[in-house]
Every structure is written in C-alpha cells, then in structure tokens.
Amino acid sequence: MRRTPFRFSSALSCSTSSSATDYPHTSSPSPTPFRATFLSPADYYCTALHELGHWTAHPSRLNRDLQHRFGSSAYAREELIAELTSAFLCAHLNIIPQIRHADYLGHWLQILKDDSRAIFHAASQASKATDFILAFQTTGEASIPTAEAAE
Fold first, then answer.
1. pTM higher than 0.85
2. How far is residue 5 from each of residues 2, 56, 64, 142, measured CA to CA in Å?
3. Averaged over 49-53, what is the pLDDT?
4. Nearest-CA neighbor of 131 among 147, 144, 146?
5. What per-residue confidence (pLDDT) applies to 73?
6. Which terminal residue of the chain has fewer beta carbons within 10 Å of its beta carbon, N or C?
C-alpha cells in the first residue's frame, strides 16, 4: 500500500528548544529539542511524534489527564500512550523507531505487572491519538470528534 507523505500543519508543528522535552499542561505542543541535537532524523521524528502524542491529551482534543507528577503511575501511563502513538505514527510514515530510555521502560514494566489490561488501554488511547493526528494529514484540521464533541 502506498502512503501519501505526512505534512505537519501549522496546528501540529512542534516548537524547538535546546532543553529536554517535557509535556506542558497547555494547548500548544511540547517543545522538541533542536533537530541538530539528535543522532539521526528518525530519532528527531520519533521524539516529535511522541510529543504530538502528549499534545492530543489537551482537554480541547482527547482530554487525557496530565496533572500527575514525574515518577507517578499516571505519568508513566501517559508516557506509554505517547510512546505507542509515536510508534504507530512511525509505522504509518515508514520511520524505524528507536527504543526509548531505560527509565521509561522501567515505569512501563511496573504498570504492566500491576495491571494486565494496561497495555490494551494504552494502545486504545494511542490509537485515538494517532487517528486524531492523522486527521490533519489531508484536511489541515482534525475531522474526528474531540472529547468535548463526544459528550
């Protein structure tokens, strides 16, 4: 199957910074470190797509809870959702993703040990985030319902 190139619309464009990424509780995408700080273009795009996964959590989009501190179970669950979103988008774009840092994996493993259904919930949320982002591919605006429209 041939896929059309994905273009980031202005609504989805990630900003850049020289600092590490960390998802904010705002409506704009998380800052992504400068492209030159990555070892490969694939590393950059995997990170940018991960941050877009967090971007979909905003209340005006898919309305996932981002109010938890680093190291908490809820924070690790959101990281898993964002990482799966990145993996799904990388697959769609034929980008070979890299495995994330060991600290992420440690948090995920604990979640998966504690909750046998966690992977299914995270995959479902990541699938929704992926669909939300890909809806911008052809229209420039998301055409799938947001959490507010579903109510």
1. no
2. 10, 21, 28, 17
3. 91
4. 144
5. 83
6. N
